[in-house]
Hints:
Helix content: 40-55%
Structural class: alpha+beta
Shape: flat
Largest sheet: 12 strands, mixed
Amino acid sequence: MGIGRSGRGRGLAAPWIRTRLRAAPAAAWALALLVALTAGLAAAFPRAVDQYQDDGLRRALDASGADRSTVQVSAPQPDGALSPAERARALRPKTLARQFEQVGEAVREPLAADPRQSSYGARTTEALAVPEKWIPQPSGLPAKVVLAAQSGLADHSTLTAGRLPRASTAPVTADTPEVEAAVSAETAENMNIAPGSVIHVPGEGRAPLAVRVTGVFTPRDPGGAYWSTVPLLRTPALMTVPNSPERLVYWLGALHLAPEAAPALLGVPGELSRYWHLAPATAPLRSHSLSGLRSAVAALESGPGLRAVRSVTDERTEVRTDLDEVLTGFERLRSGVSPLVAVAAVGAGTVAAVVLVMAGGLAADRRRTELALLRARGASLRGLTARLAGETAVVAVPAGAVGLGAALLLAPEGRRLPALLAAAVVTAVAVLALPLRALAAHRTVRVHDTRADVTSVRPSRRRTVAELTLVVLAVGAVLTLRRRGTAGDELAAAAPVLVAVIAALVLLRLYPLPLRALARPAARLRGTVGPLSLARAARGSASAVLPLLALSVALTTAAFGGSVVAGVHDARDRAALLAVGADVRVERIAPLPAGLPDRVADLPGVGATTTMSVDYQAKPHAGRQSVPVAGVDIASYAGLADRTGLGAFGADEVRRPTDPDDPLPALASPVVAEAYGTRPFPVRLGDGSEITVRIALVRASTPAVSGTEFLVVDRAGLGDEAARPTAVLATGDPDGDALREATAGSDAHVRLRSEERDRFVDSPLQSGAERVYTAAVLAGAGFAVLALLLALLRSAPERAALLARLRTMGLTRAEGRRLLILESLPQSVLAVLGGTLTGWATIRLLSPGLDLTAIALPADQVAAVPAELRADALSLALPALGVVLLTVGVATVQAWWTGRRGAVGELRAGDTR
């Protein structure tokens, strides 16, 4: 069926497309598989990012605590100008419940209140001293209580004794002499309260209010916002009197009245507060609506929401919450993590796009004769392009839909629109790759193709302009990233890819030079394999820019990504080492039991050990400022410091002097050294003894004590009591359960470096970003391998025919195998060297602008252990080695397969092409 110059074929296009698909079913299925895989990965990526960011947002709210994340709306007690009945009515449950619903309506989306954890009620804001002597008085001071009438007590608690409080049949007022209350189990245990106890709360202008305890309960969800917004309601506190030199303490607990008894609070001294606590519903929160969340919180604190709340409650109502600070902290962490993921995403996406374009180019090369014949017989470019687009769309569109559906199933959370757009872009590239490649190749009708190898084709002016444009973009991206970091813009995230693209183009321009230089010397070599393989490499197609580009970008991305992951792991390992001091730390405040250090040393997996006594209450010059003093066994401790890299020093420099009257030489931190100088000064230890030390060495860190202030002395110079060991540091990799079993009953705290390192993944935002980053790098590497296979597949028929012809002229199988390997190695070696050098250069160029601490460590560890990007040898070498091995393996397999098939079929196939 012909394709006319008008662009329309005679008859329907469907039969022609159906015929072409039936002619090459394997190619159609391969394209469908490639598009489905690529579209699925592209669609799954934004949903995976949304999922870990949403989990990180919820984790940030949960970790912040209900006292910070809950929106606390509070109003003072009713105006004294109101009548007693009106003041009492303002505290009754019906009034507070109606206001609670109206306050909830003032909350703007996407912020929403969780009705199960939100609450309302009234409570006293001042602690009231009670005269009951049977309540424990540790310092002889009377206990204090807070009266609260909170809604939903029955729904959030389980009775363990008695019953819940009830109001009297008559309406409770400020003059009611007695009310009922319940207390939490912790309050009952610590304050010696039981059902039937009566607590007399001072009255305001009236007799004391008798509060009869009728029940004891346990909270059903102690960590929920209902109980955690005001922790005192569930857990009593042992309070310290402010500015008390004797540190006098007293008990403070909460008595829960029935909601109907809230008006009784008007009859006690001090102020009371009406409150409506709105706990945010975390399940529907999404990180992409973070700006809307912050706006909703701001509107409640000082905007239209506050005006609406005051209109339904009281003109003096205030809204207080730290939710905006929690959201700001999450945004700061996300802004540090997301650009790093974007770097890997851009790299993997570029390689995937190159593979799709290569697949279209491979199809165009396979059908070059057919398309040239159609053009020679009068087919128009428009009609030919439309037919090829329709043929490809029949395969690619369903495959893209399958990939999108698989992504939606495998990543059930996240927005659908970005996933749909990603899959659509992949499908569009797959559909247009073949028509556009054919359009470029057959724009002019040709009978014979000219040579298009790398040594003969000269770069055009358009290509030169495009390459110079990319160079300018790459330089701008690198400068932007170095100056402003990864938070600069999208161009900064593409900086590694742009550098890799420029390197690939430069390598492709330089590629012919060594081939030309080696051509003449190789011609004088004995044998045919060497000169022939070099000549074949020189005759390689100039379109090899795509596989070279894919390999260069993939190697650069893999090296960059591997170095990022290595930097993250190194930072966590360093932070864990600083926190523990060694691989194992066994410590307690009091001296360790005799024999415990020996039991730890005898455990399997434990290497060298050192014992020490750490006094955290030591005070230089007998002042108020304490400095931790570690008494150590100098020889073993110096070895530990050297092995861990934490302030290595010579043992003789801190060893106890022979004269007992001389001051003890000490190793000090820079802060302590600056504060006390190098002159001897006394230090009073926690047991009352006193030593004189002289700072002899200054080190920024030491295994014995984490922090910026410490002194390390020879334990032999301490008194018998002060020298008793309180800690054991050990190297090695012992079993944690066995270690804890060996220290059971000693009340010693066991810390392992490996467990501490795992705790540094502070948020799903960090762990999720690390997983997605690793997946993106692996996907890019996989597509690079596929690009290499496609490049070899493109030249496979020609190479097979050549090998068959050479075998008829006496070439042995071993020589044929070497020929194919040597022919394919130059470009692979070029890609390996270029990609490896580009990856190393990219890391060196961009490391000043990259901060890995956001993804590596929690916020409290960032200042202590900066995470820096550095070149990782394994990340540079392993991908490069994999490319070379894959190239050699494919060439070897092809040589074996060609020899197994025989030469006749290949020669006939070559003659018919």
